[in-house]
Design the sequence.
């Protein structure tokens, strides 16, 4: 039954890619972004908006954004192979799983299709990694590390309690990037002697709350919660609040941290529920790979190093400016809709 | 036959033994942690939500069908409730959301019955289609549920507390009582069991099995919709992933609770106990420090064990399986 569903999905995706290829014949270049950020993730807006801006600036290029929902590596690889088979002039893709993506991407590069990794790099040593042009994106490990370091600076300043136990709440157990965020937080907290644990909460809200509450009940020394998705931060805060663990940002109780420059993350900071979040420069992650692919074709450009677009810590001091920026991208109505606090 | 004999030969007896074994094990291993107000409140509250889905699933399985779409219907109803609220108000949004759930069930039921298609395929299609509608409708994020809607009397009635106990618990128990009565003491219940037990025989006795089957799909979807509204009325901060994989947990709960996939034998209170076992084990495994992903392995093992035990119990009760 699952096979038939996949066949239908694959056929639909293939027809989308082929239709795009046909429509792009009058343009000089066709670049395809094969993403893991689907329409079930509000961050897709950053990428699609930036591609639109890119097309306005470079009218001789057509860009296509294709993505999976209900993420699975197998689905993503299938989508990538379909995109390669249409022989585009460039591909931007997150390296969610180095082993799974290696075969198709090496084949694409051998075919002469330039590849830029975005959002998630090939985490292996440079000599072993897939020979893409460059990586454009944040550093998942640094995301966790910088947020952890920021929290410890706030401890030093006497604004929040010192960590006694830290839990990294992960919604996708197979996502290397999320694991790297947790690893960064773990390393930042290591010197404090606080117990660090990774907890798979899943993405279903009621189940995640149930899991978190069980964990917090059994681990009473946990006073820092790091949710590696912005949308799960209200769940963590809500559970801690219901348990009387005082999760607001002050010098007592539990401290909650999260990620992303999404409205829910920024408004969590502004409301005093979340200590800090981060930006990994999502807009640039859509725009910059396309520009590098364009410059590669037109001028032979090859970046000499990875291009890091983040992380930048968003805290109570700069959250207002971030809110203004994000409102500009999403619009006021959409921004308010996405603020679920 | 005495009440005890009826209980022992009944389809939910396996689940009752399962709950007793689970409670004994948890008392021996982690008495203080398990028997705390907070733990029981949390487990019972989530059991109530899953229980709604499990009851619907049990009704469908009793009619010898299956419903793989309940997780997506649960999600779609919850999302519809939150999304339509600004335009329709709380009562209007609740009514509209439940109508959507009912329509999902009716459409699937009609396609199964009129199209002569396997319910597994039709509801698998429903699972993808309804989830897809959530993605398209929301654009990736479920909107804010404003403060005035959160404090609305109807929202509080569905999502508030009574005597310190979550409203969802009372709604689930009330629904369980009504549906058990419907199943055991009404003509519809009798026809449902007859349809699942032997459809040809039921048809020959004048039972409109097509109507019965469409009705159970509609009921299943409506129960999933109620669970979605109860969840969001209580905790409106959600995501487009709401309900993912809950169809599988609901099937597991119904089977652990004594429902035979061959149809005609099952119990609603057994399905709720099945939901309690699943939720209780998830909670306690994490509390004991096991990686939370072990839970899936546990559900798989218990499911196989439950099928074996329930088949033996069914044979003991004189049913051919």
Sequence:
């Amino acid at each position: 039954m699952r096979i038939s569903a996949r066949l239908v999905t694959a056929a639909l995706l293939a027809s989308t890619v082929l239709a795009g290829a046909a429509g792009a014949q009058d343009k000089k270049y066709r670049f395809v972004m094969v993403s893991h950020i689907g329409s079930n993730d509000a961050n897709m807006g950053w990428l699609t908006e930036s591609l639109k801006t890119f097309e306005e600036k470079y009218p001789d290029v057509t860009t296509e954004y294709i993505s999976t929902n209900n993420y699975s590596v197998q689905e993503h690889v299938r989508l990538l192979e379909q995109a390669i088979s249409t022989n585009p002039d460039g591909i931007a893709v997150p390296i969610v799983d180095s082993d799974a993506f290696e075969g198709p991407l090496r084949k694409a590069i051998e075919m002469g299709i330039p590849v830029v990794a975005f959002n998630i790099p090939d985490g292996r040593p440079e000599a072993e990694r897939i020979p893409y042009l460059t990586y454009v994106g944040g550093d998942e490990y640094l995301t966790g590390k910088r947020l952890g370091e920021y929290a410890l600076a706030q401890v030093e300043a006497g604004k929040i309690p010192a960590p006694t136990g830290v839990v990294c709440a992960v919604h996708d157990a197979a996502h290397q990037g999320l694991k790297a965020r947790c690893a960064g937080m773990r390393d930042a907290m290591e010197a404090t002697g606080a117990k660090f644990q990774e907890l798979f909460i899943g993405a279903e809200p009621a189940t995640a709350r149930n899991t978190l509450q069980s964990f917090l009940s059994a681990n009473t020394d946990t006073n820092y919660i790091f949710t590696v998705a912005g949308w799960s931060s209200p769940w963590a805060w809500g559970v801690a609040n219901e348990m009387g663990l005082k999760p607001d940002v002050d010098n007592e109780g539990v401290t909650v941290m999260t990620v992303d420059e999404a409205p829910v993350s920024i408004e969590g900071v502004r409301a005093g529920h979340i200590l800090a979040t981060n930006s990994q420069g999502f807009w640039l992650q859509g725009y910059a790979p396309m520009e590098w692919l364009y410059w590669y074709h037109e001028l032979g450009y090859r970046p000499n190093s990875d291009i890091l677009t983040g992380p930048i810590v968003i805290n109570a001091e700069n959250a207002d400016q971030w809110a203004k920026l994000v409102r500009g991208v999403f619009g006021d109505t959409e921004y308010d809709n996405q603020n679920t606090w | 036959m005495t009440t005890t004999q009826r209980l022992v030969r009944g389809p939910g007896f396996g689940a009752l033994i399962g709950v007793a074994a689970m409670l004994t094990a948890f008392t021996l291993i982690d008495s203080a942690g398990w028997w705390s107000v907070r733990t029981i409140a949390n487990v019972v509250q989530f059991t109530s939500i899953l229980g709604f889905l499990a009851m619907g699933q049990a009704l469908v399985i009793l009619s010898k069908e299956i419903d793989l779409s309940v997780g997506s219907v649960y999600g779609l109803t919850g999302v519809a409730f939150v999304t339509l609220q600004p335009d329709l108000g709380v009562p209007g949004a609740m009514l509209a959301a439940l109508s959507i759930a009912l329509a999902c069930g009716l459409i699937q039921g009609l396609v199964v019955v009129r199209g002569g298609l396997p319910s597994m395929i039709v509801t698998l299609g429903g699972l993808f289609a309804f989830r897809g509608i959530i993605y398209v409708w929301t654009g990736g994020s479920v909107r804010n549920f404003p403060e005035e809607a959160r404090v609305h009397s109807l929202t509080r009635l569905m999502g508030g507390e009574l005597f310190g106990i979550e409203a969802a618990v009372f709604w689930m128990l009330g629904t369980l009582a009504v549906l058990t009565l419907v199943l055991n003491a009404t003509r519809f219940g009798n026809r449902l069991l007859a349809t699942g037990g032997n459809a040809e025989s039921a048809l020959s006795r004048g039972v409109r099995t097509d109507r019965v089957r469409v009705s159970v799909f509609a009921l299943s979807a409506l129960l999933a919709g109620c669970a979605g509204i109860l969840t969001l009325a209580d905790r409106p901060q959600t995501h487009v992933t709401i309900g993912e994989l809950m169809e599988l947990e609901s099937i597991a709960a119904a089977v652990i609770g004594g429902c035979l996939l061959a149809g005609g034998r099952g119990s609603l209170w057994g399905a709720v106990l099945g939901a309690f076992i699943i939720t209780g084990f998830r909670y306690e495994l994490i509390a004991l420090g096991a990686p939370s992903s072990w839970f899936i392995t546990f559900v798989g093992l218990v499911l196989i064990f439950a099928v074996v035990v329930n088949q033996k119990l069914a044979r003991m009760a004189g049913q051919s399986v």
In short: Residues 9-315 of chain B form a domain with the ABC transporter involved in vitamin B12 uptake, BtuC fold (CATH 1.10.3470).
